[in-house]
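job 3f2a | input accepted
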Amino acid sequence: MSDLDPKVSIVVPTHNRRALLAQTLRSVLAQTYSNWEAIVVDDRSTDGTDEMMAQMCAVDNRFFFLTRASNNPGANACRNEGFAASRGEFVIFLDSDDFLAADCLRNRVRQMKRHTDIDFGVFACEAFRETPGDERVLFNVSTDESDLDKMLRLDIAWQTTSPIWMRRALKIIGPWDEKLLSWQDWEFHIRALTCDLRYAFFERPDCYWRMMNPVKESIGARAFTREHLAQREELLLDIERLLSKGDLLSEKRKRYLAGLYFYHGMKCVDVDPKLASHAWHRCWRRGLISPIEYASGMSYFRCWDWGRMRRWHRDYVLNYWPRELLGTISKTHLRACYNPLSEELPGEAEPVETATSSARAAG
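job 3f2a | predicted structure (363 res):
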């Protein structure tokens, strides 16, 4: 491939991850495809990221460094600003602690040029902890199940770096939601699945997602603070309205949403039981659960401090509630995204499926 091939814009949000960011950008420098630009948008770091990026930009003029201008902090504001500054026909959102395989861009551009009828392609991602290859598991595996249904069960269909987007597709989806404190990529990708876009899944992994280390990282823990949890109930309501507007809210998906409300309530009770009760009451008022399910769920949340009663109510829920209502509960959660890799990775192949996102989402 030559520089006449389409430009790929890689948008990288970052905050106080100087050492990890350097590793991520080295994986970009190692690309066998040369026509790229990497736009790093800093969420006002204090760890010398700006100095490191000045050196990187001096080494290669395909790197660009911006400091977040928006008053909204967070990765989504950085992604929006990075996309606005980008010039590529294709766009990839790369987190600042993840890696691209050396042939990632070459592989993706080749497939997008072969399949000109799709608006974005999704590529499998290999998970790792310290060094790519140390876990040998795939983050996401394509199945016959609707990707939207998987998302609603929190079986995340793909990781942030997995898609390569046509610029026109991102304009249809709209900007990343800057008010969200967590579950940002979940919301964005569900929104993408409700648009009339065509996409395909490619099984060969070409990027690496760093699994959170609970000892070193606090990001996952912050997702369950009171501020995050209070906002998440509103997010669930927004998702319900989005699906309803697109005529995608089937009875099964109503049950999956109810399961999300129950999962949300279980996370709330340790922080503020009133949040759990409020969310479950809203779930009932929205017509997502029956009166019996409402009563048993509310009893479960209200007896949280009573160990024996709490266990009894949990056992009742797990034994008697329908499976689709329990899709996000740990003991019944079916995931397709951590299947062990075989010794031989999939070779280059045709996509698993090409379909409109709305048609595939309809299941």
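job 3f2a | Strands lie at 8-14, 36-42, 63-67, 90-93, 99-100, 120-128, 137-138, 163-166, 198-210, 354-356.
job 3f2a | closed
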